[in-house]
Write a structure and sequence with these properties.
This protein is α+β, with helices and mostly antiparallel strands. It folds into two domains: 3-100, Ubiquitin-like (UB roll), CATH 3.10.20.740; 110-132 and 139-288, Alpha-Beta Plaits. Helices cover 23% and strands 19% of the residues. The chain is built from seven helices and 14 strands. The protein has helices spanning 19-26, 89-103, 120-128, 163-171, 203-207, 271-276, 304-326; strands at residues 3-6, 9-12, 52-57, 70-71, 81-84, 145-147, 151-153, 177-180, 187-190, 213-215, 228-233, 242-248, 251-256, 284-288. The protein has a five-stranded mixed sheet with strand order 2-1-5-3-4, sandwiched between helices. A four-stranded antiparallel sheet has the order 13-12-11-14. The chain has a three-stranded antiparallel sheet with strand order 6-7-10. A hairpin with a 2-residue loop joins β1 and β2. The radius of gyration is 22 Å and the shape is globular. The termini are far apart. The structure holds iron/sulfur cluster (2 copies) and FE2/S2 (inorganic) cluster. One iron/sulfur cluster binds next to α3.
Length: 327
Amino acid sequence: MPKVTIDNIEIEVPDGTTILQAARMIGGDVVPPAMCYYSKLETSGGYCRTCIVKVTQGSAKDPRPMPKPVASCRTPVMDGMVVQNRTAPDLLEARNGVVEFLLINHPLDCPICDQAGECHLQDLSYENGLAKSRYEFKRREFDKIDIGDKIKLHMTRCILCYRCVKVANQLCDGRVHGVLNRGDVSEISTYIQNAVDNDFSGNMIDVCPVGALTDKTFRFKSRVWFTKPMDAHRDCKKCDGKVALWMSNNEVLRVTGRKDTYGELESWICNECRFDKKEVSDWKIEGPRKIDRHSVISQNHYESLRQLKIDVSKQKNIAEKAHQDNK
Ligand code: SF4
Ligand code: SF4
Ligand code: FES
């Protein structure tokens, strides 16, 4: 079994493991972000380049470094390979550049976007983005499209990660949606506006890392951080019926699949569970769901408020002093 060292941590992995998978086996900060790779979708990855890493030693047999950053989700581990992620400042600089490109056409929609608070692009921009855009040209504009009667597409927010296309290909019969055109005019669309009417099409919403595909039954109902996620299940003939309910008081505002720390679903859920079961009585509630992410929806995110409190009290002292001085 090959051994790889990522950010000075060595791990032995099965043959065929990619650098990203090896990093996930280690966990923590070592793991590069991944906007298009999705372990449950075949042939995903290789589109967004957010997962790039620096390979400083190709293998024990051929120790030469790789000449430029490689997509970790598509590069298999070789025995003796040495990889840098967080420990290479020039790599982080390169990733900042990738994020800047992802954002050049992206709208400033976060205040009205349903994905805000659980958006991987928001988190990525926070960690790797610039405060100001250097892009001076007009951004791309698209009309909003209905993908069936339950899903709304905001193409302006799409980063063309292809995950929804893989869902359509691998989970739904008779795919009628995909990427049209090439280059900067590429867009996700349905073939001559056909609706995606399929038992598992709703999973496109869950795999979309941004707010491009939104659940029409939840749109504008609440910010996600005001909702309470609960694990729940029901007997379902189409899927395993294991979901997360996003509740406000005793009302079910949204039903999604259960996502892991990388934002990937534990299992695919059917459209009946997702869109048609919005009564508490439809579900057996298991208990609160712990969201294991550093996004706004995550519990403990507000630990940083402690720091804020200190700053606030400092401000208060300064204000009191200024008040005294003015007397
Ligand atoms: S997709 Fe994410 S980054 Fe884009 S507007 Fe929505 S929340 Fe903001
Ligand atoms: S709509 Fe979402 S899932 Fe589909 S390609 Fe765009 S960003 Fe990816
Ligand atoms: S996650 Fe590797 S290229 Fe997108």
